[in-house]
Amino acid sequence: MASYANDSRCMAMAEAMVPLLRRTCPEGAGGYGGSYEVRLDDEEAVGLGGVELIRAAMRRAARQLDWKVETIGWIGTRFGTMVAIRDTREVPEEHRAVVDAARYERMSAAVARVSAEPGDAPVQRGSATLMTQEFRAAVADASA
């Protein structure tokens, strides 16, 4: 596996991602409970440096937030390329209720989207669609 430690594309992408990752943490959760997912066209992901570079940038950004993480990255799914990161740190008791409520809300919204009538669903805060749009904009700004 290639190292992206000194790759300028990885560093720029990571810097652009720090505020995106930070915003996924529920308000009042002390920076815990964040996760981020992007879904890109396969060609777009390759143009950005590939799945492994995007995952490396996500991990680099997460380290700046002191997250302990789990990442996934797949190319060629029915959704195109999917890349995700999740903070796996143990949530302190004083933030657990907030993080649990936020997770419940995200799961309920996902179930509602899956159960809805076929067609275009509205873009909702915290959805992969919105995260992907934010990611594209942040990466474009970072490379400009």
Helices, strands, pairings?
Blueprint: H1 8-23, E1 35-40, H2 42-47, H3 51-64, E2 69-77, E3 80-87, H4 93-115, H5 128-143
Antiparallel strand pairs: 1-3, 2-3
Description:
With 144 residues, the protein is an alpha+beta fold. Helices cover 52% and strands 16% of the residues. It is built from 5 helices and 3 strands, in the order H-E-H-H-E-E-H-H. A 3-stranded antiparallel beta sheet has the order 1-3-2. It is globular and about 40 Å long. The chain starts with 7 loop residues before the first helix and ends with a helix. The mean pLDDT is 89.
Brief overview, please?
The protein contains 5 helices and 3 strands, in the order αβααββαα. With 144 residues, the chain is α+β, with helices and mostly antiparallel strands.
Morphology = globular
Fraction of helical residues = 40-55%
- Oligomer state equals single chain
Q: The biggest beta sheet, please?
A: 3 strands, antiparallel
* Stretches with pLDDT under 50, minimum 5 residues: none
As a whole number of angstroms, the C-alpha radius of gyration is 15 Å
Work out the strand percent: 15-25%
Query: In total, how many beta strands?
Result: 3
Question: Counting H and I runs of at least 4 residues, what is the number of helices?
Answer: 5
Overall pLDDT: 89
Strand order of the largest sheet: 1-3-2
Q: N-to-C terminal Cα separation, in Å?
A: 28 Å
What's the helix-strand series? HEHHEEHH
Structural class designation: alpha+beta
